[in-house]
Amino acid sequence: MSSRAGQKQASRAVRDYIAREKRRTRTLWATIAAVAVLVIAGLIGWGVVASQNSGGFTPPPGAVENGTGIKVGSGPVQIDIYEDFICPVCGQFEQQTGGTIDQLVAQGKAAAVYHPVAFLDRASSTDYSTRSSAASGAAAEGGKFREYAKALFAQQPAEGSAGLSDDQLIQIGRSVGLGDAFAQAVRDGKYKPWTAHVTDAASGDRVNGTPTVRVNGKDVQPTTQAIQAAVG
């Protein structure tokens, strides 16, 4: 009897050992799975943050290296122009001084970098500053940035209005030779993230209003005479 009891006790001990090992194995795999989930979640989160930190935008063709503006020309002096398409003073600046900048670029004296910011979304009921800036990015993709920007200012809506509709923005684009790809980019808001990047970068560079003009990094008055004197 004692021998049989010993065998039973030994068998029970073996079964208990096997059960413990199974529980330990299940716990181990559950821990590994939990860690794997955390690692994957962390990687996804890092990817999202990295995307946000990188701006999450696609600059249009013709943009400068950091994507904060559209460069026109290749002269030795750089003129940076920060403007908002619903800003009435920017419209006056384009009318009075835009031709002078075009001439300086054409003569090879200067390169112009245009920063279409969206400071004045509050000045319309449809975020017109963002929509028009994004449309200018689509125009840059079509190789017609300056032509389109001039046309936008020529048909500039009043501050406080709804601004031009997307259909009107598209029609203006067609009037300067832009086609269906431009129209689709406007409807899709393709360059709205780029507009946000341009606007954030301008604020970071202490641009507090529009129009702001800088020649080789130095602020100058937004007048024909001041710009010509600064370019030399």
UniProtKB/TrEMBL annotation:
Q: Which residues form the Thioredoxin-like fold domain?
A: 75-226
Q: Name one GO molecular function term.
A: oxidoreductase activity
Entry annotated with the keyword Oxidoreductase: yes
InterPro entries in alphabetical order = Thioredoxin-like_fold, Thioredoxin-like_sf
Q: Which UniProt keywords apply?
A: Disulfide bond, Membrane, Oxidoreductase, Redox-active center, Signal, Transmembrane, Transmembrane helix
The superkingdom of the source organism is Bacteria
TM regions (residue ranges): 28-49
Q: Which Gene3D superfamilies match?
A: Glutaredoxin
Question: Which family does the entry's similarity section mention?
Answer: Belongs to the thioredoxin family. DsbA subfamily.
The protein's name is: Membrane protein
Protein source organism: Phytohabitans flavus
